Amino acid sequence: MTVKKDYIRPLDLRQGRVDMNHGAGGRAGMQLIDEVFARAFDNEFLRQGDDGAALPAPPPGHRLVMATDGHVISPLFFPGGDIGALSVHGTVNDVAMMGAQPLYLSASFILEEGFALADLKRVVDSMAAAAREAGVPVVTGDTKVVERGKGDGVFIATTGVGALPPGRRLSGALAQPGDVVIVSGTIGEHGVAVLSQRESLEFETAIVSDTAALHGLVADLLAAVPEGAVRCLRDPTRGGLGTTLNEIARQSGVGLLLEEAAIPVLPQVDAACELLGLDPLYIANEGKLVAIVAPEAAQAALAALHAHPLGQRAARIGVVQADDHRFVQMTTRFGGRRVVDWLSGEPLPRIC
Amino acid sequence: MTVKKDYIRPLDLRQGRVDMNHGAGGRAGMQLIDEVFARAFDNEFLRQGDDGAALPAPPPGHRLVMATDGHVISPLFFPGGDIGALSVHGTVNDVAMMGAQPLYLSASFILEEGFALADLKRVVDSMAAAAREAGVPVVTGDTKVVERGKGDGVFIATTGVGALPPGRRLSGALAQPGDVVIVSGTIGEHGVAVLSQRESLEFETAIVSDTAALHGLVADLLAAVPEGAVRCLRDPTRGGLGTTLNEIARQSGVGLLLEEAAIPVLPQVDAACELLGLDPLYIANEGKLVAIVAPEAAQAALAALHAHPLGQRAARIGVVQADDHRFVQMTTRFGGRRVVDWLSGEPLPRIC
């Protein structure tokens, strides 16, 4: 899609807005694709210009991994990121948590009539930069437009495909009593950054989203321990660490015992949570992972995480134990013990 | 995700509505996934219950094909289909148009607060039935919820992955002068069915959407002619046959000459178009394909299409010719000749 002479004038990327024509199948939509999407994401696959992309398959013996995520975060721009970068990181991370090497992304955009083209370009450029940085190209896409009041600026659904090496199996169903629970860094930054932007709160120390692609960190972690020693990886996004750990407990039919003092939280996130009446355990992260690791591999796993820029504050935060009730419990700073239940109280909508 | 005893009571699938809790990451969201999505789509991959699905790769030597489509059709239910079935057919067809065998689908749902759970269940059940019928499982998914007035019931973005046999290449860039243009059946039913529903029009003869998965038809077509004889396949959805043919002409740098009398249109679609002031050439189809075929293979291609239930009214509608202007022209019923331009006039929004 590189023929550009068809258009009478270029899109007005400063003052222009999305209109229904951009989604109707025709010249306007094609111009939007050429001048915003194709230009930003440019790669050999997208340049094929067909209804889909034809792609090299994973190496022989590898399986495929496929993961998808819809992104509806509000506001679209927040400290440390925006919906574009997030939509790359979120899906790259879902593929990486399966133990796979992310290879390709697809992107489906649902635009609201009246959305500023300047904002769209900013989102798409950020998304393209995140994809380049991650080394995972957006190889195919789609754009639809809905009437004003039937959408909210832009929603982005991304799907990732990755290559899973022979013999590798990571799953939330594989946690065993005695395994160690590790988190790759401080929790709660993403959710607090978004909420503070939403509430127009200003904190003394800036809190920025941790949004990041974790496949490099995962590759280093998996290379440092024997195959099978990492039972499960999860990125504790929506619902936070507390929800993710409950999911693992439920899936594996085990209990978890956490140590509150071991869970890394930035002081400014702690303070903001106190102010907002929130528990960092339930706040979304977009650049952290939880690893359930065999006890004999925990030391090597932690060392590998610590050696990577995204894992410097990795910590051992608990253990897996036999428990028919599949409870996640926590030894508190005061020496007591409480249940870390499924998310209760007010939900935090549209955090990713 | 088969543990169901956690929930105090089952979802109220008759009177219940989507609320923000269903998208917040927690027990309510998990219940929605268990009782609506997982139950309908049930398959071995989805049952893994992880952030993504681990899947058998395509056979050795095959490449991957990846295609994505967002679905925002309004109304959600229309004669002959609904957004659920459509979201399967649309993406299966995009994969098939590349000449690939569709293998897997992912699905991302964006729900509006207040959307009736009964409608959601109806959509998901229809989607699951379409996936089963097509033999292409939904292997992974995601659900988000946006506030009332920030969405429109449900949007569904589906991504498909397929296997492309060695040596196969189909592309809109491969049309050559002398090639034959074939359409697999009557055009315009989907768009007219949706518009008539939207405008509450009733016609003497019911017009139903042609929404269907075309990969079986494609497989039969490709098996009937030598590799390379089918240059390009496209499903003329949004923007209709006229837009699709202009895209091919642009991509290949050729002209097309159509014969109006050869283009199959149901009489009731013709009549409805006249009433609505529409041209069937620009009306969306969801169960038709356009094939650009080498002249010596045209006969065999048509025979293969005619032998399949979805291609019985296939017709040869024109030829490819050299034309630096890349015009799509048409010999009219009255013997004149006109240019079939890119879609002009009022767009038809949210037709898929």
From TrEMBL, chains A, B:
Domain PurM-like C-terminal: 176-329
Domain of life: Bacteria
Domain PurM-like N-terminal: 49-163
GO biological process: protein maturation
Cited Pfam families: AIRS (PF00586), AIRS_C (PF02769)
Protein family: Belongs to the HypE family.
Protein's UniProt name: Hydrogenase expression/formation protein HypE
